[in-house]
Amino acid sequence: METKPDIDLRAAVDLLGAAYGVRVEDIAFLPLGADPDAAAWRVAIAGGPPLFLKTKHAAFDAGVLAVPRFLRDSGIEAVVAPLRTREGALSVASGGLTLILYPFIKGTSGFDRALDPEQLTVLGESLRRVHDATLPAPIAVAVETERFGSHWRDRLRGVLAASPAEGECDAVGDALDALLDRERDTVARIVTRAAELADILRARDNQFVPCHTDIHAGNILVGDDGAVHIVDWDAPRLAPRERDLMFIGAGVAGTWNEEAEVDAFDRGYGGVEVDPVALCYYRYERIVEDIAVGCEQVRRGEPRHRAEALAQLAAQWRPRDVIEIADATYGRLMRGARP
Question: What is the 3-state secondary structure (H, E, C) of 214-267?
Fold first, then answer.
């Protein structure tokens, strides 16, 4: 969330003190992340290093927080996991607000600082350990299992079919309509291909592993010491490993779109037979989601953010960005033997 939410900070400070046994000296809003139902904060505490607080303002299944905690406790140092309360819980909730406390990582995201080859190799090693992990049954039951459903495709169809509401017919809204009109065939092709690939995968006996599900460069922090940290574990899922692997080489936000970057990651991840159908499906499905969300942000977002959302949406059509790379992935799939 980029806009400071209207919450009772005094009550939040008291809640943190009671649950975690810390004395909060200061709490500062951080304009990070795209989730409209979450906000980030830097918390200064007495006698200790700063902490990172995430507040969730909508229904949230706190059970999924056990996934990164388990992975971190299993020795995967790159995983940033929530801290436990004095009673051993991984979050605390009051009045519809959930508070989750983490270590504060002083560093830069992969969107702002490119990972060097060694760091990409460390990322590969860490993600392989995540995928090789076996979640204990009490933790696994809280994790969603991949269904290859049509939620985002249906949502995008609804967005495209909706008429602009009052207040959306301005220069930014007109630019969005022009983009969608110009690229209507491309968007339809992406949705159709995602649906066809989902049907293939749904009919298979797939191998599911623990996945982060949103492991783009923005969710990788490089600490000031050069260490690699994987953050934002709010939506883990049991899915084919390609759910995560698709990001490496996909070009999300213009990052990780070079062969050398993929090679560096692969050196750490190790040999594995990647399913080209699953890889292609997830690349297209991600584009479907981003177009749907982008259109909603342009049409109904805060005025000061609508132009930026439009620019991010349009960027997907840039050379070496996600659409060109997904189409190339599909082309390679079609040239090979279709499973």
Answer: CCCHHHEEEECCCCEEECCCCCCEEECCHHHHCCCCCCHHHCCCCHHHHHHHHH
Burial 29-51 (b: 16+ CB within 10 A, else e): bbebbebbebbbbebbbeeeeeb
Single-letter amino acid code for the residue at 256: W
CB count in 10 Å sphere of residue 15: 18
Look up the pTM and report it: 0.93
Q: Is 236 left (phi over 0), alpha (psi -120 to 50) or beta?
A: beta
Tally the domains of the chain: 2
CB-based contact 1:36 (threshold 8 Å)? yes
Q: 49: domain CATH number?
A: 3.30.200.20
Residues 156 and 232 in one domain: yes
Q: What is the pLDDT of residues 70-124, one digit of tens each?
A: 999 999 999 999 999 999 999 998 888 899 999 999 999 999 999 999 999 999 9
Whether 282 and 242 share a structural domain: yes
DSSP class per residue in 108-161: EETTTSPPPHHHHHHHHHHHHHHHH----HHHHTTSEE----SHHHHHHHHHHH
63, 138: one domain: no
Q: Answer yes or no: are the C-beta atoms of 244 and 238 closer than 8 Å.
A: no
